[in-house]
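step: validate -> pass
step: tokenize input -> pass
step: predict -> running
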Amino acid sequence: MPAQTPWRPPWMSTMRPGPTDSRGTTRPQLRRRRRRMRRTRRTRRTRRTRRRTTTRRVEMECTWTMRRL
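step: predict -> pass
step: emit ->
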């Protein structure tokens, strides 16, 4: 360690420069993760509801079971 460097937590050395969240992951990674999550959730729900649509009540039940699992 050179003399006048400010102290950094040990995980800072592995991190890439740029804005980060608490874990030390960079912004672009976070964006990618969020997009993927959104897509998968939407597609799953729509597929399930389309298969078993008879009335709105049934649709609601399906969505609730999905959320619980």
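step: describe -> Residues 25-68 form one domain.
step: cleanup -> pass
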